[in-house]
## 1
Amino acid sequence: MTRIAAAVVIVLVLAQASFAADIKPVRIVTPNNMIVLIVDQPSLPIVTVNVLVKAGAVHDPDALAGLAYMTAGMLDEGTKTRSAAQIAQQIEFIGGELATQGAQDFSTVTLRVLKKDVDLGLTILSDILMNPIFAEKDVARVRGELMGQLQGEKDEPGVIAIKAFDEIVFQGNPYRRAANGTEKTVPKITRNDLVQFHHTYYRPNRTIVAIVGDIREHEALDVVRKHFGKWTKKDGVPSTFSPAVPLQQPKLKLIDKDLTQANVILGHLGIDRKNPDFYAVSVMNYILGGGGFSSRLVNRIRDQKGLAYDVDSGFQANVMPGPFTVQLQTRNAAANQAIASVVEEMKRIRTEPVSDQELADAKAYLIGSFPLRLDTTGKLAALLTLVELHGLGLSYFEDYPKAIRAVRKEDVLRVAEQYLHPDVYALVVVAKQSEAKINPEMVLGKP
Amino acid sequence: MVRRRFVALIALSAALFAADLSEAAETGPRVQETVLQNGLKVLVVEEPKAPVITVQIWYKVGSRNEIMGRAGLSHMLEHMMFKGTKKYAKGEFSKIIKKNGGNDNAFTSQDYTAYFENLAADKLELALEMESDRLQGLLLDDNEFQLEREVVKEERRLRTEDNPQAYLVEQMFAQAFMEHPYHWPIIGWFNDLNAMTREDLKQHYERYYVPNNATLVIVGDVKNEAVVSLAKQYFERLPKGAPPTSPEIIDPVQRGERRVIVKRAAQLPFLYFGYKVPNFMSTDVHALAVLENVLSSGKSSRLYDTLVYRKKIALAVGASYSELSANPELYTFYAIVKPGAKIEEVEQSLLAEIERIKKEGPTDKEIQKAKNQVEAKHMFEQDSIFRQAMLLGTAETVGAGWQYIADYVKRLREVTKEDVKRVARRYFQEDTRTVGILIPVPPTAEATPVAGGTP
């Protein structure tokens, strides 16, 4: 029985609080400057590895938007010594799971294997990270798949809306571009672009590896050394970007599509993850629209009016300030009314203090549910890489509940005033416009 | 919340337990069963790796228990379960769970309705108290029902009406099943949602929400004795109900392929077809599971290799089968056609792969891979207490019994190449196939901006 479980027997409440605090990752910097985080959890004979490489869509040239996404997508499509089919065969024969994904700030590769297959899993994982070959015929095939994906997205009103929203809100900043590119840029991506991108950005000194599961610290270090030891670092890669230009006046974008529902996104620039107000913002957003059935937006728009199945708000705190968004879907004819309610709630939380009860409930949820965000090897490994990326420190698992606990009513009011802009926002509505009849007077704030 | 049929089928298919690799796997999830005096079954798995639990209560009622003209009643009732009891007002249930650091929700399928709370282990009593309260104390306020009906209609618009692929899936099932209630969608048709009354909900609730029609599943950092003692304290006061029985509906034998075509504005053609197959009652199900793995699990599977890698005519392709349904269901195949390719070619290629495995069967290596995958999956599932409880709840509720999962290991290992070939031949028959095809037509309104800028 582990130390954690033993504590539980004595005092449940304390044990719960100490569970997160008991997660003490080992952090090692390898000679080639890769960060390795290890959490030994021997309760099941499995190991999850989450690799984060700072090789995201933010690095794409404008004309080649989608390059980072396609590079990540092609890692497992063939290496110097393994064909795409061989990679799939080898990993799937042992029942392992291997997945790659390109995002804005970074790309990830995740691996899950049985303990007995750790060495083989890491052999393949390191091979696809270090030696992808981007063969011409596979580039052509994957490019075609990406083009198909982009075409298919036109059937997804939520995707149409968020892409239009990002273009408006992130003027002058790389986040304005969709990570998976456009139908104009993807055809221009060549094998050489992929090779160059990989050569520049896939480096150990840009990589964070989290290893969680039934593996001792020295075993983890041995496999890392064995498989990543020869990866050469490369310094001097520029990674500063111009900040987004905040909106000066509200912007409305209506997109017509034959739908029964209006898909609404309303929002503006938010905060980055290093912002010390992150915790107060988390509490504030929970009360506004992040807390599901406990939130004001769900209470008003779903429970009182029956206008939507789903409505929520959120701040995406990225390396650079990400978006604040409110998203909802409602029958076309109800769009004006629903949007007006959202704006009213944004205004209210900026002008009236939240109640003691709301504050206490929000904090209790955020603190109490923290262990639920760490209760599988996959969830923990993913969170570890982000803690490292944002420089939150190894004591994060102790610090998070403390930081939430410290948030006061005044803080909530202050961050609502500072980070919500109910007068100057972008509003995108994908709907059957002849039925939605969006009324600018009603849905746009008055500056 | 409703689980889309598509998602639910995929989630359950590959999820069953397989071989033992170590001590932990050998023992598997140690399920402890207790039946209370009123017939409520309690299943507990002690899993102390983190101080959290999942509490799930599974009712044996889903869209299969509805009658024509009231499709969606079970799912509507699921929504109403959050709308207040004599003790807890509307919305209070979720608010209390959340302020105790937990997450709660519910899902409805063809065969079951289930409610869950994921929370700290020391909140077990709270969850049990509140679940026992709404098992029989529901208000079913008519005003709340009128409002919630609109919410459910929004949910239908979101999930089905504005989603061409989901719309085709719904049409295909309506063709495949003629008399059996698998004919209609879990979320219901608009006309039925509009026709529903409070009285319908009340009857459904009184009939199916009785302790002897439910299973309580708890997995996490708890002790069985503590759970049973609390379960008795809160649930045993509830009287046993008349055992709900539904007339056994058997769909007439299908005599020839059926095809359903949907033409609507969409970007990509989509193919979705299914064969009638048995459920857990049949001894063929393990061979069918291996067959599914060989055909569609991963990039090294036959369908992906042929249609995506080599022929380059599909963006995605797969197959799905779950024997954990109360009545025989479908073994389904799907493919999203790559731009430039023809849907006819995609269908022919898929059918050719099916013919090939009927003729040749799988290779030794494919069989071994399938078994290895199911073994590993078994271990990965145990990483999540929620998934463990889901599996037990499903097996128990559809009538297979949670013990089914333990036996599955041995059975799957015994499957041979010949078995896989035999079941492919037996069930992949043209005459019991129903094919759905989505044909994109030009949109009446193209997705282009009609207005914008700053007024």
## 2
Amino acid sequence: MLCDLCKKNVAKVHLTQMDKGETKKIDLCEECAKVKGIDDPTGFSLADLLLGLGAAQEMEPGAAGTGARCPACGFTQAEFKKTGRLGCAECYRTFAEGLEGLLKSMHKGTRHVGKVPQSQHFSPDLEEQLKGLQRKLEKAVAEEDFEQAAVLRDQIKRLREPPSHPAAL
Amino acid sequence: MKIDEFLPSPAATLKSSGPHDRIVMSSRVRLARNLRGLPFPGWAKKPDRVKALELIRPAVESLPAMAGAFSGNMDDLTSLDRQILVERHLISREHAAKSGGSGLVLNPDLSLCVMINEEDHLRMQALRHGLQLRAAWQAIDQLDSALEGKLDYAFSRELGYLTACPTNVGTGIRVSAMLHLPALVLDEQINQIITAVNKLSLAVRGLYGEGTEALGNVFQVSNQMTLGETETDLLERLHKVLAQLIEHEENARGRLLEKRAKMVFNHVGRAYGILANAHSISSKETMNLLSLLRLGIDLGCFPKVDCTLADELFMITQPAHLQKGFAEKLSADERDLLRADMLRERLLQVGRPVTPPPAPDKPSGN
């Protein structure tokens, strides 16, 4: 019998759970059992495991294929399959394509609507601000005021994307 | 300062009461945050973890809310100290197993706790007695807002706070409450309730014990989704569910007293009998009997004490708390003897249960 998770190794850990007369069974190899925390049975629930079964594998290969490596931290999709955790904040961009479906299945929505750090707040509305700058930029280019255009271009860039360099270092 | 000198006694921390604490033992709100530009702790090499720790620890220590806090590296704590922190519900089992580059900052009344380099760079939590989700959220929201001025968080406008596990991305929030639901278990309604709560995409877990078995009838209800809903919407949703769970438990208690009072008093009486007289008792049996003792206290069978006693005994009969004060590692058998000695002594002053209780202290049973 092969492990239900990796489907490679021989299953040695066999779990059975009765839930309202329904029997659920799962067979795992020692390695996957360990990864899933079943060697430490405290707080383990078969339901969690069954619900989450395959979740870690659902990350679809992105355009770059499964071999893609995060340029910031060197993390790969294969690692994610093993642990269900990502390597760094930048991984969300690197594996964005593959993560999309996964996030959709896990969460209520795919867009953050909660708290935003003060430093990321924009007033007035960011979109409005960007549009205004864009108009000014076009005007500057038309008037061949390249100095001004460069300034505006940088402003737009900063607004669109918060600095990704480690400011804390 | 040493952590065991810093930690107030369980009795002292459990003394304060909160709304609905007959049923809701505690409320907790946890936020996950990471620093921009450093790999997440699970993937980071030690130098990067140390770098994160060196940035985060002083920033957390400097907050007014953390005045007088304990602050240390996990390396400096003995394994017994860590185990005690786990039994106190202050750190996760995962964090207790961490070494190089992990840290902990804990305020004096233990209501704010920041784990550094657990699964995420920062896991900060606010803890309150009884049902106080909003107060817990306000406290941790303030702490987080104060910290964001000092640290550069990994945040994306699209996905919110970026976390090591995609299940936490967005708000990075986990709102949870610890509930004591003995009547729903005795009345065999608990499985139905758990299924119903699960359908609302909330998780219900047994807090103690292995697998799905919930020792001591203590359950933890928490959210699972963190993306696509605001913190306050989630909080209010969970609050409503908890209010219903409280009502169900109160109703079940009322119904049991009305229809099957002998069965309830039999359980309470036997629980007291064993706890007050045993000479060897396992942790599992202790939990289950303490739950019944706590129910008896709630129902007025032990007029001299309040549920703080049961909650304290829940904590101090656990392995690491028993081990404290002994240089030699105790075996499970030795702990069972010690546990029984402690329970006999503590229950001496409680006196036998009065059944039926003199007068119900809650109108819901009538």
